[in-house]
User: Fold this.
Amino acid sequence: MLAAMEDNKQIALNVLKGAFIDRDPSVVGRYFAPGYTQHNPSLPDGPGPIPGMIAGFSDTFQYEPGMAVAERDLVMVHGRYTGWGPKPMVAVDIFRIADGRVVEHWDVMQEEVPASETAALPRMPSVLLDSGHFVWEDRAEDYAAAILDWIRGGYRAA
Assistant:
């Protein structure tokens, strides 16, 4: 099972690198399932719209991948986007992988907050990376479990 999770993590990282760093539309044919479900309401389902999205990136668009966490068929990658909008964005891209293909994607994005403007997070020791991301290094498994619980419907109980 660990090998499969590592394979899934590599697929998600290949997708992000191919689409956002290399800007290679062939990443779609290599990694996306025909029935791909996109949970971001600004993009339609199916892999068809993705090459057009890639082609539409401005010259200033950049993506920096951060921490990647895999659990069963889900992979979460924390990353930083610049040039997508007026301010840098940080995001968690969440992929569900089946049979070596991306079958679902969710994302959670917010404007980047400079470290100098953030409050200390209680009970979650953090490490500030050069890019301004916070990574919960000491409790990555707890962080991943909380996100996975939310994906699987635990958010409905709140």
Remarks:
- The longest helix spans residues 2-21.
- The beta strands are 32-38, 62-71, 74-82, 89-98, 101-111, 127-128, 134-135.
- Residues 2-116 form a domain with the Nuclear Transport Factor 2; Chain: A, fold (CATH 3.10.450.50).
